[in-house]
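Protein modeling request. Please complete all fields; requests missing the sequence field cannot be processed.
Requester role: graduate student
Desired output: 3D structure, token encoding
Chains: 1
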Amino acid sequence: MEEVARRAGLSAGTIYLYAANKEALFEIVLRRAFGEPLPAVEELPYQPTAGPDLVEWMWGRLRDVSPFPELRKAAKGGRPQVDAMEEFDIVVREVWDWHARYWEAIELLERCAKDWPELHMLFYLQFRRELLGLGVAWLARRMEQGEVRRYPDPATAVRVIGENVAFFAMHRHVRPDSADLDEDTSRETVLTLLRAGFEP
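Delivered output (200 residues):
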């Protein structure tokens, strides 16, 4: 809390008027990153949600903000009327847009998961594995049909897509050598490169 206060140019006492402790401050930042309003004045100092309840809230919030309808549709069999590379573009744009919208929340979850076993299980072993599984189902089927370029391992190919999208839609914001990259230009460049790598 003292480090946060120092970086904010405030006294620690001022921070404690707003958040009861570091858990409360973490929760406020996370809720704000997920698009929720800041606590009302009468709720201050903000009291944290109990540990298991906070993890449960995070799981619910992740589920609420990440329906990924296009990815789910593609994983189930896609759209017969849509060309595979058109579907590729639709799905990757959807994943990009989600990362771009919630990048602050995801950065926070990824950083904190290293020291928080329940959050690690929630974010990496439940949330991300489910999404990766959907991506693998989609891409493996399209590879098998010969409609996208076949690679030795669809799971690795999906991670190549995901990591490129995650870096340029999200992680670039906190990297000194990449923070000045333009959103639209980055998105179109990455999508063009990925599409070229998967065209049959």
